[in-house]
Amino acid sequence: MRLPIPLCTTLLALTLPAFAAVEMKESADKVRVEIGGKLFTEYCFTGASHVYFYPLIGPGGARMTRDWPMKDTPGEDHDHPHHRSLWFAHGLVNGGDFWSEAASHGTATPKIPLGKIEHEKFIEVKGGEKEGVIRAALRWVAADGSVPLTSVQTFRVQDGAERVIDFGMTLTAGEKEVVFGDTKEGTMAMRIAESMRLIGVDKKPGAGKIVNSAGDADGKVWGKKAAWVDYSGPVDGKVVGIAIFDSPKNPRHPTRWHARDYGLFAANPFCEREMDKTQPEGAGDFTLEAGKSVTFQYRIILHEGDAEQAKIAERFAEYSKDAK
Hints:
Elements: H1 5-15, E1 22-26, E2 30-35, E3 38-44, E4 52-54, E5 86-90, E6 116-126, E7 131-141, E8 149-158, E9 163-173, E10 178-180, E11 186-191, E12 209-212, E13 225-226, E14 228-235, E15 238-246, E16 255-259, E17 264-268, E18 286-288, E19 293-304, H2 312-323
Antiparallel strand pairs: 1-2, 2-3, 3-4, 5-11, 6-7, 7-8, 8-9, 9-19, 10-18, 11-17, 12-14, 13-16, 14-15, 15-19, 16-17
């Protein structure tokens, strides 16, 4: 029997894989990333001391990073105005601070000269049926106007029930060597949603949970070396989580982690002494010779449930095999 054309079309649609296109919409100050016609994040490259991605919208529409200082949402802390959703920066580069912003210090004079990480140009902005990518060239501008460092930042996101981001940063020294100094203020960073914190805005215990690949939990994760860390907690009454994988290809893998109970969540390959006082001064310093480059890669997974429910250990094992 010959099926009517509308019914035939409907049956065909049901048998096809459900891929929601990843779209990139460029404007003067940002690139809007939509998945399935809905906002996932925006690459913001004006109005701050470093570029960043905001918001990050996870499973079921959960907003998984803090709104402030981009948006004033009731009930959020107004601490650390440089904690802008998702970003890569470091607090000690050739003696300059590329992590903080002027607003971070209020009326006080910064102890270290403040630098800026500026968007220079796009190398690639491309959407697709299964993934999208934003690749941008950045300039690290010191307080005196010099540019000791440039970088290429790659943000690649996959469509799916969860969101998988592959984030890469290739750092290239200029005419002189660049030293990434030993400081806890860095580096591949996120500021998670306030409801996911271990310690709430009211300073009372929260519902968040932190675990790492070594089996450490909550406050014991800070400063430890681990292949991955997962930070989970409730958003709008549903438990969701964020895992960051440190690529086995990265220098100093497994990295140390600046994961705090108030919601800062960062992988920091340039810190030793400030996180482990048994180490000598400057043990975390990393020198990049003039004209040379180094690349750091991370996978970020926005998932439902906690680390165990999302099988993060298994997911890292798979990622690790692909990364080698």
